[in-house]
Amino acid sequence: MKKIGKKRKHAETIPEPKKELVAEERPKRTLLGWKDKPVVNENEADVPTFRNKEKVLITSSRRINYRYRHLMLNLVSLLPHCKKDSKVESKETKGATLNELVELRSCSSCLFFECRKHKDLYLWMAKSPGGPSIKFLVNAVHTMEELKLTGNHLNGSRPLLSFTTNFDKDAHWKLIKEMITQIFGTPKDHRKQKPYYDHVFVFSIIDGHIWFRNYQISCPHTGADKIDRGGLEKMTLIEVGPRFCLNPIKIFGGSFGGPTLYENPLYISPNQIRALEKKKKSGKFAKKVKAKTRRRMHEMSNPLEQDEFADMWKE
What we know:
Elements: E1 29-30, E2 33-34, E3 56-60, H1 66-78, E4 82-84, H2 94-104, E5 109-116, E6 120-127, E7 133-142, H3 144-147, E8 157-163, H4 171-184, E9 194-206, E10 209-218, H5 229-232, E11 236-239, E12 243-254, E13 257-263, H6 270-301
Parallel strand pairs: 3-4, 3-5, 8-9
Antiparallel strand pairs: 1-2, 5-6, 6-7, 7-12, 9-10, 10-11, 10-12, 12-13
């Protein structure tokens, strides 16, 4: 028989206290994107480096017209740093919904196409979550499929932004120019963009409206990869599309709302224009009715004399 030895007593293991998990501090958000953490250099002082991480959320309201939907898709193809989302119900609480969507999709700006009465298109251009935001009325819409222009630039290439000198006159135009620069300008080293320029976005102010045009930069080639210096002077612009006109309505201090910073005094809503057209048409009908009543009154006050030869040929 083998003797069974006694089991040794194991030392009691004391569980180590759990370390509290602390989330890292989020980098500060700016108008152009997120600020990276400061780079630590041994020789130089701590200098914060900035990297543009601008992302734009593009969405629309429900019951949008097919023409306006095609315009939205054209802008999605022109902006490689944008993200497209599903339609949002156009209600009073759309601002909170859109701000939440922008945060969920990790974007910093939003372009919201709001269609009303299947006729009128409004464009919201907003920086989330702090603002500001601008509301435009979109007129003179012509999509790329409709125009069928000869221009053709590479998909995903960076655009040059061209502004007229009118943008530097007033404060509200300067703010609109800065918003357009941040939203339509493709960030450098973006993963979906090409590292060269071959088209230009032109924003010009005419009669208080912003007109948008997209042109391809065409250069003559001599068969080699490089372009001669003389050929740079022969560069031409070929329009690509789309075309649209922005009429600024209001500028708000917050995102999709807040205090009103600017209001366009020359803005007339499409409902008022349609009401004036109806009044003109109703005025024409009222004139016809008045003319008929005047004619009847004139005939009653001036009756014709009976003709003595009227019954002569009757049997």
